[in-house]
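Appendix B, Record 12. Input sequence as logged:
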Amino acid sequence: MSLPRAPISGLMIAVAMIAADIAALRATLPAIPNPGLVVMIVVLEVGLPFTVVRRGTRRAFWLGFEVFGWAYLLACLTLDRPIWRMLRAAYETYVLGATLGGQGERWRFIGLAGGLQSLSALAAALVGGLLARRAAGGRD
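Logged structural output:
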């Protein structure tokens, strides 16, 4: 069994797209970006070519994935401060039992909250892709 071969030009385009995305994020986001949103932006940008390349229900899946993913991302960007305040309050109340103290506790909170936000964004995008594929009428 041989592995599928990817053309070098396609890999170079993917690397260039991710590099440009990370450079743009670094220039526009604050000093400590929301790691969940950064991961989701990269995943959505890597998935964009699949909406063009795929055909049939696979294209419908990727189109739904992108639409739901970007909609969730825009909602998170709009409501970023209230979401983080709510997550911090829940973390302090239920996990720590006190307010955030040292730098290590803050980084642990940022990692946990960013991971939860990234997982929920991926789940929303996956649901959108599956709904779009079902609406297109197939399982191929």
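The two ends are 22 Å apart (CA to CA).
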